[in-house]
Amino acid sequence: MKKYAFIMHPLSLDEVCTFEPKAAGKPDQLVEKMLEWMPPFVIANRLGVASEHKQVEGVMICVPLLPQQILGLNADFVIDKIVAAAKIGEKSGADIVGLGAFTSVVGGRGKKVAERLSTPITTGSSYTAISAVEALKLSAKKMKLELSETTALVVGASGSIGAVCAQLLAPQVKKIILAGRQISPPLTRLAETIGPKAEVTDDTLQALSQSKLILSATNAIGPVIKTEKLLPGSVVCDVARPRDVASRVSSRRDILVIEGGVIKLPGQPELVTDYRLDLGMPDFLTFACEAETILLTLEERFESFSLGRTIPIEKALAISDISHKHDFDLAGLRNFGQDITRADIRRIRRTARFTRIREKLKVSSKNGWARAKAKGRKAKARAGKSRKSA
Fold first, then answer.
1. pLDDT score recorded for residue 380
2. pLDDT at 162 (0 to 100)
3. Which of 18, 190, 211, 382 is most solvent-facing, going by the fewest CB within 10 Å?
4. Where are the CATH 3.40.50.720 domain residues in the chain?
């Protein structure tokens, strides 16, 4: 049976406690220093993934570093940790290694890790991108938004996932806004590639107030979408881990927020672990970054598939074809680990409609008061003139 390895890491101090209970209640700095000393280790095995063509198994390896450590510590130190984790996968018999969350960001988006291994590497960016766009389109349909009449916004558009998402989405929408922390050459080149439908901005706040479809795929450590400027009836697809969308935005009752890139696996998948590992979803679901690694294993396509800052759109389309062959599918719509039901969608549409009506009434009321005040001033002026003439 063919085997894959998938490298993951804790996204928060709470997650650290799932494999190191002694970290609970300790100062953050002490916990982070402890994590630096810890070597990578096997945290779980995934069994029972089977399409009609083949069955595979996976070993999940934890690099015990938080997002801020992966981005903030010495790059060589972090890459050494990731390589050590990948070599655990190699020794276990893995034919390919997937990089999850922030382990896929450092070292040239996986390139430096790949250079030090004989086993192929993938970041999962291709399948993450195309599954996120499919989830956004499904959400738009349920919210009764016509893509051809709607403005879309991609936050983090200069990143590997964001750029592919923008190219996949652009032909189907009225206009697409590409947002980055700054208007960089990669962002400008992406807009030129897409054509006249695209515009670039470094003002995400303003762009949010112009868009009904938002896809966010940054490498930020904390939320980047925490504004109330989102339009009622908007759809927000959060691809990032940790999340780009703040919980208070996600709880708004007049917008639909979904997790991007959640995939339903075929067969009878089971996570076997000695730790209190909680991925926030049932064992038959996973994120698209791991799903891409599984697909390449099922297909026995052992090559470094998604690497580097630039991912060709052809790779996203190719992995999509492979996913259909092996019966991988979107896991419906989910938000913060919970399924979004038809009743939820109806409630969001209804609340959005009422919100828009209230806003129109407020504007109408303000305009009415303004007109009344203007008439009052004119009446006073006429009265003053009459008294003078008298």
1. 56
2. 95
3. 382
4. 129-261+336-343
**Is the CB of residue 140 less than 8 Å from the CB of residue 147?**
yes
Joined tokens for residue 351: 């609340």
Q: Is cis: bond before 10, omega within 30 of 0? A: no
In the predicted model, residues of the chain with pLDDT beneath 70 are 362-390
What is the C-alpha separation between 365 and 360, in angstroms, rounded? 8
Q: How far apart are CA 200 and CA 300, in angstroms?
A: 39
Non-local (6+) Cβ contacts of 341 within 8 A are none
Q: Any idea which residue has 């403005």 for tokens?
A: 151
Tokens of 105: 């960001």
Element (H, E) at 57: strand 55-62
Location of structure tokens 């896991």: 331
- Calculated CA dihedral for residues 124, 279, 86, 4, nearest 10 degrees: -70
pTM (predicted TM-score) = 0.89
CATH of 129-261+336-343, one of 1.10.3470.10, 3.40.50.720, 3.10.129.10, 3.30.300.130: 3.40.50.720
